[in-house]
Specification:
By secondary structure, the chain is mainly alpha-helical. Helices cover 56% and strands 5% of the residues. The protein is built from 8 helices and 3 strands. Helix 1 packs across helix 3 (43-55), helix 1 crosses helix 5 and helix 7 (123-151) packs antiparallel against helix 8. The two termini are 16 Å apart.
């Protein structure tokens, strides 16, 4: 069975390669800079994933086309870099994953990866993912509040402050999700109120008209996390 982490990486790799073919170093750099959730992963994690995607027929391997790549590799005694390209089957696989709106897409890491590709996601799917994420965080918030109410008197000041910080972080993300959901609904209603105007969906830029105008995302375009403070009562991500 494919682990949840491997599934997120597969999704992200297919999504990035849909934009353009890349070699492994470029992919790792994009995963690190554009998708902050992959900052700590290594080549030892990426290359087995790439090999699996090639074996499944979703990617093809091609030698680097730039002459300087081949020359540099020859001088260094190494092979030329391999470029990975998405196949037609790989594009279908990514579209399939992109339409998924189950509970996995609401979890912390998977949601961050899904949000990074919202520009390629249909509006109705975006709405289901956002609403699912909000519901998951509201459940988490209730557990955190209940846990704090039970243990408040037994906690020292610093642990209590850490718990409060965690709750504030979740509350902040819930407010951010509320704004996103309202913006998506407003954009949909405005589009639906103009029957003479044909619907447009730009898969390269995304439907930016659905986003709040102020900055609401974290570094690299990923959503703000639910907070770095640990929550002992939170078992929703297990």
């Amino acid at each position: 069975m494919v682990s949840r982490r491997s599934g997120i990486l597969e999704f992200a790799v297919l999504g990035l390669l849909r934009e353009a073919p890349m070699h492994g170093y470029e992919l790792r750099k994009r995963l690190n800079t554009s998708l902050g959730i992959f900052r700590a992963f290594s080549y030892g994690t990426l290359y087995p994933c790439l090999k699996t995607l090639v074996a499944n027929g979703w990617l093809t391997e091609e030698p680097g086309s730039a002459p300087e790549d081949a020359l540099a590799a020859s001088l260094a005694g190494r092979r030329a870099k391999i470029v990975y390209r998405l196949t037609a089957e790989g594009k279908e696989r990514f579209e399939e994953l992109l339409s998924h709106t189950g509970p996995d897409s609401w979890e912390d890491e998977h949601f961050a990866a899904r949000f990074a590709f919202f520009g390629q996601t249909e509006r109705e799917v975006r709405m289901r993912v956002l609403e699912g994420r909000r519901s998951r965080l509201e459940e988490r918030l209730e557990k955190m509040r209940a846990s704090l109410a039970r243990t408040r008197e037994r906690l020292d000041d610093y642990t209590l402050e850490l718990q409060r910080h965690g709750m504030e972080s979740v509350e902040r993300e819930v407010r951010w999700l509320n704004e996103l959901i309202e913006s998506e609904r407003t954009g949909r209603d405005q589009r639906g109120s103009s029957p003479d105007e044909a619907p447009r969906e730009n898969n390269t830029r995304g439907s930016q008209d659905g986003l709040p105008r102020h900055g609401g995302t974290g570094t690299g375009g990923t959503p703000p996390g639910p907070g770095s403070a640990p929550d002992p009562s939170d078992d929703t991500a297990n």
